[in-house]
Write a structure and sequence with these properties.
There is one protein chain. The protein is of the alpha+beta class and 281 residues long. The protein has three domains: 49 residues, Transcription Regulation, Sacy, Chain A (Roll); 97 residues, PTS-regulatory domain, PRD; 95 residues, PRD domain (PTS-regulatory domain, PRD, Orthogonal Bundle), CATH 1.10.1790.10. It is 58% helix and 7% strand. The protein has eleven helices and four strands. A four-stranded antiparallel sheet has the order 1-2-3-4. A hairpin with a 5-residue loop joins β2 and β3. α10 packs across α11. The longest helix has 19 residues.
């Protein structure tokens, strides 16, 4: 596939057309420097290629990229490469654009003396350790390359973009998921007689279950079966865990107007029960 420059957006971004006249956004360090429309690109100059879905989207991307410095584009490229090397699943291509926009906004705020706290910093650090680690790496890179000192909360904000990019649904709100996880873990912790043992394997299993449960709940994709016998056996065998699960059920019905299915309740009770025994594995 050969690419021809249609428009230079800045020294690191160009709008191109391919052999079929499809328009593509192409990123590459210095790829647009000294270039003009009609110039054929060399494959070695290209770092990433993006195919806009619609013309309105193309216009938005053009407007955003024309105002972003090559330095931000290069830092973003390195962060995305790092994320791809650390995250096992695929990442949505929109991650590059959302990160560029976020980094530019953060640097602009810093220059204006404005910084905002991410209220879910500790939750992101606890619930999404892999993404948070990438966020910390990215924050150090940004601070070093731009000679700034962005607040540590930026690591969580960057992690949010990566979490969103992991989602199969582009509009999935990772902040809402994190808030829900925090609420559910809080209910379980406060309802347990001596609290949760966060160093136990059972707690890590509970946390993983709650994360996926929260995602299913907000997507309207709860687990459903007709195994009433298993459900009734669990609620009769684990009364204390069932009481806590009922508190969660009441919270979700009140705050989210969602009723938990019997199968979701079954798994929830089982995971809560494991933690009530204070497994020290």
């Amino acid at each position: 596939m050969s690419l021809t420059i249609k428009k230079v957006l800045n020294s690191s971004v160009v709008l191109c057309t391919d052999d079929s006249e499809n328009e593509l956004i192409v990123l590459g360090k210095g790829i647009g420097f000294g270039k003009k429309a009609g110039t054929a690109l060399k494959r070695d100059d290209i770092n990433q290629v993006f195919v806009p879905i619609t013309n309105p989207e193309l216009q938005q991307i053009e407007s955003m990229l024309s105002d972003i410095s090559p330095g931000i584009i290069e830092v973003t490229r390195l962060i995305v490469r790092k994320a791809k090397s650390k995250i096992s699943g695929s990442l949505n291509k929109s991650l590059t654009f959302s990160l560029m926009d976020h980094i530019k906004f953060s640097l602009d705020r810093y220059k204006d003396g404005l910084t905002f706290k991410n209220k879910l910093y500790w939750e992101v650090k606890s619930y999404y350790p892999s993404e948070f680690e990438i966020g910390e790496w990215a924050l150090a890179l940004i601070n070093n390359d731009f000679n700034v000192q962005l607040p540590r909360e930026e690591a969580a904000s960057i992690a949010f973009h990566i979490i969103n990019a992991e989602s199969q649904e582009n509009n999935q709100d990772s902040m809402e998921i994190t808030k829900l996880i925090n609420s559910l873990i809080g209910i379980i912790n406060l309802s347990s007689k001596s609290g949760l043992n966060k160093d136990s394997i059972s707690y890590q299993r509970l946390l993983t279950h709650i994360k996926f449960f929260a995602e299913r709940l907000l997507r309207g994709q709860q687990l459903t079966t007709e195994d009433k016998e298993m459900y009734e056996h669990v609620i009769s065998s684990y009364p204390e865990a069932t009481k806590i699960a009922i508190k969660i059920m009441e919270f979700l019905e009140k705050q989210y107007r969602v009723k938990i299915t019997d199968e979701e309740m079954t798994y929830l009770i089982i995971h809560i029960q494991r933690n009530l025994t204070h497994d020290k594995e």
